[in-house]
Amino acid sequence: MVEETIELKGHIIDSLLLPKVLDQVLARGAEFEIEQIDIGVRRSDPSHARIRLRAETKSAMEELLVALKVHGAEPIENEDADLLAADIAGTFPEGFYATTNLRTDVRVRGEWLEVENHEMDRGIVVDIAARRAVCTPMHRIRKGDMVVAGHRGVRVIPLERQQRGQLFEFMSSDISPEKPKLALVQALANELQKCRAEKKKTLFVGGPAVIHTGAAEYVTYLVREGYISVLFAGNGLAVHDIENVLYGTSLGVRLKDGTVVQGGHRNHLRAINTIRRAGSIKAAIETGLLTGGIMHACITKGVPFVLAGSIRDDGPLPEVITDAIEATDTMRQYVRGVDLALVVASTLHAVAVGNILPAETRMVVVDISPASLTKLMDRGSFQTIGIVSDSGLFLRQLAGCLQQVC
After folding, report:
1. Which of 235, 238, 277, 317 is the most exposed, having the fewest neighbouring CB atoms within 10 Å of its CB?
2. What residues contact 213, with CB distance under 8 A and at least 6 apart?
3. pLDDT digits (tens, 9 = 90+) for 184-207
């Protein structure tokens, strides 16, 4: 048998960290013995537990320690992180440590360094001279970079329950369609109002269904009233938003009455062509061609946006970033400091944004398909609230609640 002693510190009882650790130990066929436990008297008091683990083999123990790390469990004996030099640009060295979206520290020469820009599924590059550790995507690795390997000397700080906020206390990550949506919409409206009042950064991520369901006017309202600090979308949302303004249709369907316009399927191409001939969305606004809509509101209100393209895009619009790596890197620049992210009707963008957001950023995802929400949560974005709803209805209710709050 291989033995190792770990400890847990903080709000390990009310945040359910202790039972999660013990459950992982038993699920992996290992044994535990609680050697010491000190439970805080008041809710604000931290607790502490020292636990001895036993596993059949050294490899089984290593796997167990990695699994427990996301719950804040750390070996008693502190060791420096192992650093390996990257031997090939654009790749990690073998055995690299893969990050989570939780705040992380690494121990270098006896000093704990907080990892900057933490996000999931990245590596950690350490600059020993500058005493810095940075979460780094694979494509940014340069030959010779010192990369953290293994899990020793890596400390993960789990989210405690009180850090999630009132909205996330109100609703768990259960995505049942039977949840009281109007109550949740009201809670979300209160959070957006609070973010605006406290000048906290908010992110809106939307798919083209936002336009198809007639919700463009509600997102435009959110932008104009200062509830959205930055917007992410693909070519589709911007194209159909502009198509709606220019021709009153989305995918050739007149949004006012739902009728199909003869030859209207060409309207999205006409919209793209109009903007490309103008040179850009901004130029079309300045010349008076584009007079309303979401993109118009973003540009006139100074709200930054990132339009990330895909292989199926027509055109695309001039502002669309067609290089996937460049688009993701640009998105990374804008997600720093985001307090609340609202993702509506965009599975691909939801997963992409979930991958680059730190765990402390609250995330609300709305989609008509429960499978889309499950997919995101299964990938590790456990800070997410999933709401099964039609995007048009949801955004109309949200705008209505915000108007009542105002």
Report:
1. 277
2. 345, 390, 391, 392, 393
3. 899 999 999 999 999 999 999 999
